[in-house]
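Lest this sound abstract, we think one record worth quoting, the chain in one-letter code, the fold tokenised, each line plainly labelled:

>
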Amino acid sequence: MCLTEYNEEETMKLFKEEGREEGREEGRKETSLQNIRTLMKNLQFSAEQAMDSLNISPDEQKKYISML
């Protein structure tokens, strides 16, 4: 007798949704990086100016600086 019921279909659905969310987050980061680089190149902005223009929070800016 099993105390918990295992539903493989529901478990797989949860894993897929988790994977999708991770993919969305990665896509948002890549888009933000691309936008920062474009502002830096086309408008001669510093990284900080570009991120301020994009309303990126100071905490997030630290992460993006390391990615540039």
